[in-house]
């Protein structure tokens, strides 16, 4: 092995260690509100145009809850009652007024009309083969759907991320060989795809090109230790990322390069997903079955 390779390896190791140390720094216990509770395993928070928040696994796994702006919670749709499978990641599309969801039991992406509650299949295969077990979804401004597709039979290298272009009716493979890809988001300028690889406990950034339909080699930007690893990711208007730590009970706020800008704890151990809206950051927490919210100023105040 040459000196240059050894040096490069050492630099990479130090960078990984630096990120790990950042993630291990003590968090500040946050003042937060319990926005809603009584969930089996809350995930997939998504706001509609009226400010209602939709979250999966309410009173039972197949329930999608609708939480009004005042916190009143009702069952919006029982997927099991209409012979559909349970879902996890969700995203609302203001263009067509539909709620898109990862129906992991049916291995497909579905769209739910909010008025009629009619369910339709958006994508259920790639290159003629069924999807693995779709997990989380991101809706880009141009209408493209990005989704993670982990493989339960090979959680170390069997996962992938795909993009479904509604406009040209094509599916693009962006990344594969991933260690249980979970939460994901795309930067507002459509130049970067961020993916939480839960088994590797890291967040990986992939450069995007070709209108977001092609991804280059990924680069680790944030590394966690302890717990299970990162779950949900949300980009804010500043281009920074909120990242939940499932099993670690922390909500991190990091720059696009992975620098830790803020951290909050005290919510419970199993933070799943995160959604920022207005002055609040909403978090789904599975240990206690709650939807919580914390002021953004906890992370952004000087």
Automatic annotation (TrEMBL):
Gene3D superfamilies: TolB, C-terminal domain. It holds the Pfam family SGL. Residues 1-23 form the signal peptide. Residues 41-262 form the SMP-30/Gluconolactonase/LRE-like region domain. Keywords: Signal. It comes from the Bacteria. The keyword Cell wall biogenesis/degradation does not apply. This is SMP-30/Gluconolactonase/LRE-like region domain-containing protein. The lineage of its organism: Bacteria, Candidatus Glassiibacteriota.
